[in-house]
Design goal:
It comes from Pseudooceanicola nitratireducens. This protein is α+β, with helices and mostly antiparallel strands. It contains three helices and nine strands, in the order βββαβββαβββα. It has one domain: Serine Protease, Human Cytomegalovirus Protease, Chain A (Alpha-Beta Barrel), CATH 3.20.16. Strands 1, 2, 3, 4, 5, 6, 7, 8 and 9 form a nine-stranded mixed β-sheet that branches. A hairpin with a 3-residue loop joins strand 5 and strand 6.
């Protein structure tokens, strides 16, 4: 079974605390993403209960771990994560600066589908997922999930630019001219 990814936009107020802590939602339940998938409540429960460690990666690259997730849990909204970028890792320090500047504004979950059902021609409900990793990414696929942390506020111009790119990617996906990540 191939590893799949679901991208989620981080909060307009995503920040990095002085200790490089980030937190928020990596996936939201009941929201259809640009690929036509909807994660259902409870989809991560069995995977989280297994106790297997979930990695924090840069852009889904298994050769680039950049931190550690200290808390992962499902609540009524989705999959909430809290972790820390590792100061001793050059890419993690770069990621922190990119977040502070507003250049990185996405999270993405990497998983294997254990159980899913097609609800109509364009939508698949993901019922059980085996969670492997949560990555910081450049281009989110699900724009309604959010991450928050303590620190400096993002520049609103960069957020607006990211929204323009999201809208353009959605238009290309709808017309079949673009490729969606993952």
């Amino acid at each position: 079974m191939e590893l799949e990814h679901k991208f989620c936009c981080v909060s307009a107020d995503i920040q990095v605390a002085d200790d490089l802590t980030i937190e928020g939602y990596a996936s939201l339940f009941g929201k259809v993403d640009q690929g036509g998938d909807r994660v259902e409540k409870g989809a991560f429960a069995a995977s989280l209960a297994s106790g297997r460690g979930v990695k924090m990666l840069w852009q889904h690259d298994p050769a680039q771990p950049i931190g550690v997730w200290s808390e992962l849990r499902e609540d009524n909204q989705g999959l909430w994560v809290k972790g820390r970028l590792l100061d001793g890792i050059a890419r993690a320090r770069e990621a922190a600066e990119l977040i502070r500047a507003g250049a990185i504004d996405g999270l993405s979950v990497g998983y294997r589908t254990r159980r899913a059902v097609k609800t109509d021609q364009s939508t698949r409900s993901l019922i059980e997922l085996e969670l492997w990793e949560v990555s910081l990414v450049t281009f989110p696929m699900l724009t309604t999930a959010r991450v928050t942390a303590k620190g400096d506020a993002l520049d609103s111009t960069l957020r607006d630019l990211a929204q323009v790119f999201d809208a353009a990617r959605q238009d290309l996906t709808r017309t079949g001219q673009g490729q969606t990540p993952g």
